[in-house]
Amino acid sequence: MNTKTIARVLAGLVALACLLIGARYMFAPAGILEGAGFPTDLSAGGLSTLRAVVGGAFIAFAIIVGVHTVRDGEDEMIRFMVLFWLLYTVGRVVGIVADGVGETTIRSMIPGIVLLVVSIGSVVMFARSKTAEA
């Protein structure tokens, strides 16, 4: 398997994870409230906001990155994916500094760090494939 294929597979895995996260927030937000650090008694408006803002954003992100990676096989959107997960992780760190560590903070942070590392791995593999092509 060449490095470009590995990069595309890694990017596809991150896109799939984003799709699953988004689907969970969009179609079953009540089931993840406590684990994500939200109060479990959100109003219908609060649940709707989670569905739209978090679910919609993750699904859109997954579609954009997934389609671009499969269609073009280039790394521009993969770099965006790294930026997304980097800022996600920075947001978690800012939350720890500003708000302290809650019971779900670290557990919620781990998947973002894993997806950041996989995203970086995808960018590195794309860079290696370009070097090998040259």
Furnish the topology, listing elements before pairings.
Blueprint: H1 3-27, H2 44-72, H3 76-99, H4 105-133
Question: Could you explain how this protein is built, in words?
Answer:
It is a single chain. The protein is mainly alpha-helical and 134 residues long. It has one domain. 80% of the residues lie in helices and 0% in strands. The chain is built from four helices and no strands. The protein has helices spanning 3-27, 44-72, 76-99, 105-133. It is elongated and about 55 Å long.
Quick take:
The chain has 134 residues and is an all-alpha fold. Helix content is 80%, strand content 0%.
Structural features:
4 helices, elongated, 134 residues, mainly alpha
Give start-end ranges of low-pLDDT stretches: none
Range of strand content: under 5%
Helix content: over 70%
The helix count comes to 4
Helix/strand order, N-terminal first? HHHH
**What is the C-alpha radius of gyration, as a whole number of Å?**
16 Å
Q: How would the global form be characterised?
A: elongated
Compute the number of structural domains: 1
Please give the alpha-carbon distance between the first and last residues. Answer: 18 Å
Beta-strand segment tally:
0
Average pLDDT number: 87
Structural class based on helices, strands and sheet pairing:
mainly alpha
Please describe the biggest sheet, giving its number of strands, its sense, and whether it closes into a barrel: none
